[in-house]
Amino acid sequence: MSTVLQKNIVNDAIIKDISDSIHGLSYGTVTITVHNDKITQIEVSRKSRFDDVWMVHEAGGGI
Questions:
Q1: Residue pair 43/28 in contact by the 8 Å Cβ criterion
Q2: Where does the chain have alpha helices with state H?
């Protein structure tokens, strides 16, 4: 009986990069791109959410 060993496509550097990308991300998306069984790219899209209602006055002032 032969055992087929698969290469580990995730090394420690990739795991750290993914972890760093997620850490501190309140809202957004982390996209991992795989090409030929290898992680080739990590994209991070951050979003800002404003819970308070912001009003803009004609003079250009805030709240």
A1: no
A2: 12-22
pLDDT in tens, 6-19: 566 678 899 999 99
Give the contacts of 39 (CB within 8 A, at least 6 positions apart): 9, 10, 14, 32, 33
Domain residue ranges of the chain, discontinuous segments joined by +? 12-46
Q: Rounded to whole angstroms, how far apart are CA atoms 17 and 5?
A: 25
Residue 60 and residue 39: Cα distance in Å, rounded?
46
Q: Is residue 57 a contact partner of residue 48, using CB atoms and an 8 Å limit?
A: no
User: Is 0.85 topped by the overall pTM?
Assistant: no
- Give CA–CA dist 29/57, Å, rounded: 33
